[in-house]
Amino acid sequence: xxxxxxxxxxxxxxxxxxxxxxxxxxxxxxxxxxxxxxxxxxxxxxxxxxxxxxxxxxxxxxxxxxxxxxxxxxxxxxxxxxxxxxxxxxxxxxxxxxxxxxxxxxxxxxxxxxxxxxxxxxxxxxxxxxxxxxxxxxxxxxxxxxxxxxxxxxxxxxxxxxxxxxxx
Length: 168
What we know:
By secondary structure, this protein is mainly alpha-helical. It has 6 helices and 2 strands. The chain has helices at residues 18-32, 68-76, 81-92, 95-108, 131-141, 145-151; strands at 40-42, 65-67. A two-stranded antiparallel sheet has the order 1-2. The relative contact order is 0.22.
């Protein structure tokens, strides 16, 4: 129920709020059985491309082997841009295919003022949404237990991987 709104349909750049839609699609892929939360993913070189050096990161490295669940924690807690790309490739085979899925899903949810250009939210003139649409896809994302668990966490201790010690 909307209690108050102001410029709810004005287009704006969503930045890392984009990652809520990324997490939603990953959670839906888990629910569909196309991937599992425990599935271990090897980070590709392509997932590490087109990221800003000063952007949010979990210091994930190409060749590192990390579970989907740990990647979701990296995506939503430190807002790791590389985690968004890694998860996008895991779900759809490429970031480009995942972005197309993001836009399709946004339309299915009734988002009329949204267009995604990437999975992480780094600025692009073709990457925008509205407060109203953010409410729509966030409401859908919060239906997933794992997303609620992660966003309710203050910290997370990620276990050691083949290339990194355990990290918080």
